[in-house]
Write a structure and sequence with these properties.
Blueprint (H helix, E strand, L loop, with lengths): L10 H12 L5 E6 L7 E7 L4 E6 L14 H15 L8 E7 L3 E7 L4 E2 H6 L5 H15 L6 E2 L6 E2 L2 H18 L8 H11 L10 E3 L8 E5 L5 E6 L6 E3 L21 H8 L9 H20 L12 H19 L2
Antiparallel strand pairs: 1-2, 2-3, 3-5, 4-5, 6-10, 7-8, 9-12, 10-11
Helix pairs in contact: 4-7, 5-6, 5-8, 8-9
């Protein structure tokens, strides 16, 4: 079942988006939907000039979204331009066109990167350590880019300090939870108080680093390497990018695990080898990571109804997130 945020496209509509992007002389020879995402409608497209491209179309304007999702397609266009200009070693799709039209809505056309989604290789039991190591190297390159604010851009949750931006991000999620009547593990005021109790550890972050914030295995492409294994081929879906603490970006690649419990993970090895410092044994670092996992697991919980996800359709998702939230809240609520 598709998410309510995903437009239902057909071949004729895809042709219209391509014509609006590249001109009427370019023809579509073949196309089809790409699975894996839950926000935008994504299609692969082959053109008569031999190019393979990807069309990504945002939700209709009438579809309710979470606060940080406002203008998310345009955010991805900004991210792709940023990476191309300031972190060109990071393998992201080349941006061919970003369009916005009253009839067609908001869309991107990008180049098509080859490779398989990393999670499919993991499911097949294929060794993928080198892919994770490459992702760590890529994230280290992203984190060397400095922004002009903390938090999201485009009028979304942000602040002059990382503490204020993170607090605003949490406040927006809690407001989304209220709007969608999402049950929370604790009342919203208690969650705010818990964040405020620990927020002082965020003041050590003085530089707003560029963060991808969605580096789980479904957004990582792997291609065959020269030794018969696999290596990093691409990093996609950067629309959730923001500026802040590089530690926030260690949460999604290690989804459902703790970086401080797996210091020799290949992702972290690649990150350190590229020159990034990660002092996982420091108490302040551990508390920051706990706050960031809390934010991610809250986000994954709060977004469920906007994606049409229920306890009946994905019971394991709710069970796992409830357990993880409980663990993080217990750790933060301790001495």
């Amino acid at each position: 079942m598709s998410s309510p945020t995903q437009r239902l496209l057909d071949t004729d509509q895809v042709r219209r988006y391509v014509a609006a992007s590249l001109g009427p002389a370019v023809r579509v020879t073949d196309c089809g939907p790409l699975g894996g995402g839950g926000f935008a409608a994504v299609w692969w497209v082959r053109l008569d000039d031999g190019r393979a491209v990807v069309l990504k179309v945002g939700p209709p304007p009438s579809v309710p979204l979470l606060r940080y999702e406002r203008d998310l397609i345009a955010a991805e266009a900004r991210y792709l331009r940023l990476v191309a200009a300031h972190a060109p070693t990071v393998p992201v799709p080349p941006l061919l066109h970003h369009g916005k039209d009253p009839t067609l809505g908001d869309w991107l056309l990008t180049g098509h990167l080859p490779g398989r989604m990393l999670y499919t290789l993991v499911a097949d039991g294929v060794p993928v350590d080198d892919v994770w190591t490459g992702l760590g190297t890529a994230f280290a390159a992203l984190h060397r880019v400095t922004g002009d604010r903390f938090g999201y851009d485009g009028g979304r949750a942000a602040g002059p300090t990382w503490r204020s931006a993170y607090t605003a991000m949490v406040d927006d999620l809690l407001a989304d939870a209220a709007d969608w009547a999402v049950p929370l593990p604790l009342p919203a005021d208690r969650l705010r108080a818990l964040v405020a109790r620990h927020a002082g550890v965020l003041d050590v972050v003085r530089r707003p680093a560029l963060l991808h914030f969605d580096g789980w295995a479904g957004n990582v492409l792997a291609v065959p390497g020269p030794d018969g294994g696999h290596r990093l081929g691409g990093l996609v879906d950067g629309e959730r990018f923001l500026y802040g603490d590089p530690l926030l970006d260690l949460v999604s690649p290690l989804l459902f695990r703790r970086a401080e419990d797996t210091p020799d993970d290949p992702f972290l090895r690649g990150y350190r080898t590229a020159g990034a410092r990660v002092a996982l044994d420091e108490p302040g670092v551990r508390r920051r990571l706990g706050l960031y996992r809390l934010y991610l697991y809250l986000l994954m919980t709060v977004e469920a109804p906007s994606r049409g996800i229920t306890v009946d359709t994905e019971p394991d998702r709710f069970r796992i997130l409830a357990r993880l939230l409980d663990e993080e809240l217990s750790a933060l609520d301790g001495p």
